[in-house]
Amino acid sequence: MFGKTPDYVKWRMDLLNLTTDIAALPADGKIKPDFAWHPSRLSTANRKAAVTRYMKGDFRSETDASTFAQA
Question: Domain residues of the chain, as ranges?
């Protein structure tokens, strides 16, 4: 109906699981929405660890950051 796949809609809906402070980061352009989805599936403590490392530049690429968040 809106030209988006069900997977895309689910991915965006998962972003609603983020805490308020982390949810503001993609909106402010501090992290990419593509990366924000991965921490949305983690526990709160692990979310903060993944996002903190991402923002400090501890990952060489988006793929490395996503792999870390998935592990």
Answer: 6-70
